[in-house]
């Protein structure tokens, strides 16, 4: 669970709407849909360091 990375302050409650990250970039259903059809899933969520500095991550998942 990396919810704390999705806000500059690190304070996000479970189920709270994402204001600093695209919902598509962190959507489990988006990844599940692609993987269930045996397609590669790649997304670039924006994360935040403890200093509140933003960074872009890259997540790639390839089905076997």
Q: Can you tell me about this structure?
A:
A hairpin with a 5-residue loop joins strand 2 and strand 3 (54-56). The longest helix has 9 residues, at 28-36. The strands form two sheets. The chain has a two-stranded antiparallel ribbon. Strands 2-3 form a two-stranded antiparallel ribbon. It has one helix spanning 28-36, and strands at residues 41-43, 46-48, 54-56, 59-61. 14% of the residues lie in helices and 19% in strands. With 64 residues, it is α+β, with helices and mostly antiparallel strands. The protein has one helix and four strands, in the order αββββ.
In N-to-C order, the SSE pattern is: HEEEE
* Structural Rg: 13 Å
Structural class designation: alpha+beta
Strand content: 15-25%
List the helices and strands and how they pair.
Layout: H1 28-36, E1 41-43, E2 46-48, E3 54-56, E4 59-61
Antiparallel strand pairs: 1-4, 2-3
What tags apply to this protein structure?
single chain, 64 residues, alpha+beta, two-stranded antiparallel sheet, 1 helix, elongated
